[in-house]
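Milestone 3.1: sequence recovery, worked example.
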């Protein structure tokens, strides 16, 4: 049996088509507000089919 660590992620639909995935600072506040009662650090932004994006994050205890 193998174990694998997977970063938590948030999938969003309706992301503006011209968003810049490399400007994580602009998205950190928006995405991290979706995690109730937790603090998080945005790790990566990955465009997904059309107007979707997957945001990976590190939860802070």
């Amino acid at each position: 049996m193998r174990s694998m660590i997977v970063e938590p992620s948030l999938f969003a639909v309706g992301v503006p088509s011209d968003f810049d995935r490399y400007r994580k600072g602009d998205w950190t506040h928006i995405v991290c507000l979706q995690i109730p009662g937790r603090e998080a650090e945005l790790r990566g932004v990955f465009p997904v089919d059309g107007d979707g994006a997957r945001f990976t994050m590190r939860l802070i205890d």
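The helical segments are 24-32. The two ends are 28 Å apart (CA to CA).
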